[in-house]
Write the structure tokens for this entry.
Amino acid sequence: MCLPAVVAAAEPVPSAAPDTHVSTADIMQRRLSQNLNHAAQWVDSFFDDERYSAEDASSKLRLGQAVFLEYGDTPKLKTRVNLSLDVPRTEQKLKLFIGGDDDANRSLSTIPDSVEERDNDGSSAGIQFFAKASERRNLSLSAGVKISSAELFAGPRYRHTFSYRDAQLRFTQGVRWYTSRGWESRTRLDYERLFGDDLFFRQSFDGRWREEDPGYRYELRSSVIQPLPHRKAIEYQWANLFTTHPHQRLESTVLRIRYRQSFLRKWLFYEMNPQLAMRNDESFKPKPGILLRLEVVLGGKQYSGHGNRAARTFDHPPRRGHGAALGAVDGTDSA
């Protein structure tokens, strides 16, 4: 009496037809995520942003001279020297650094009145160990000394990138302990996506807490980056700096156009960055200014995309209407 049931159970069950719609959607989502991630790396590599340089374990020398001119103020000069050395036979897991912007918790942004510019407190020297390095995750540990004050410091930096529909989220957390000032925490969250053929959008939250300082300081910044032919790029920025002490308030807002170009040699750059700043301590009166910078970048890992369509489009931007969209599926992208 159980035979029919046994026979039925023994008969092969026809396999369900594969869901090609889901499979195609997954492939497109993966390639879109790859294109977006490669475009973000190209942008950060070209502007030598902390998001890229803090995770670059190769040897690099960076020399820069900048002058900041603002209406009603005297010119301000700033010289920047940074040197990082890949320790041989460590498979790029260990590097030595010395300079004013070694701190992996800081951004290399040139906007005056941003969190990192006001808190830049001298050169440092130390060592950085990379425990994990991939496109999705990066974990490193740094230790060193502030040269001007002989203050020791140590702490980790962690970055994780998440894909979300046609955008990506990048979370970065840095924690450091200093022998004299105590603990410091730096948190950054970036929302990134592509628009059209050659526009990269980034919305950033960048916050800093220090044990020795009251309150919490954070910056909200919107950026649109457009690559131009012949190793040029332009970035449109709107940055707002806030503080929670003695109460929640807006400290400053800055509108800036950042133009960067490589000229004569691939390692030689100049920038022209006009801006309009409005500050709380000046009753938010508009104050025009401009930053001019000449920079030499020798060595380092220059991102080229390794065949990815998004990076190729950013490195060789097409004229409007003549190039494929960065987010399009491209058979040359790796899965």
Summary: The two ends are 53 Å apart (CA to CA). Residues 1-11, 101-119, 306-311, 320-335 have pLDDT under 50 and may be disordered. Residues 30-315 form a domain with the Porin fold (CATH 2.40.160.40).
